[in-house]
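Lecture 7 notes: from sequence to structure.

We start with a single chain of 117 residues. Read the sequence below before looking at the structure.
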Amino acid sequence: MFNKHFRIYEYLHIPFWLVKDTCWGLEWKTLGVSMIFPTLGLALILAWKTRRNTSEFLPNLAIALWISANSIWMCDEFFELGIKNWCYVPFAFGLAVMAFWLVVYFPKLWRHNSSGN
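Now the structure, written as tokens:
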């Protein structure tokens, strides 16, 4: 299902996310905000590329929602925009997506991997 380019997106996504959150912690506003775009962009690409495989898509969608919420929170802390409460919307959707995944898809994956396949 996945080609080598998909894994590159996954591997690139991690350092972008780490840099974004490190900038947030260090209060480097310009770099932190600029890192939202590649981080969220790659998360959306990963979700899009897995859209036909629901068990892969849902965790990628939850990650994109998490990064969205996290970015809203970061921008609110940086610029005092009064929008922090909006971050709870994508957090809630991400949690709902993952709860659904845990109930519906995780048991199947667990059984499949436990059977030695």
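The chain has one domain: 4-114. Keep this in mind for problem set 3.
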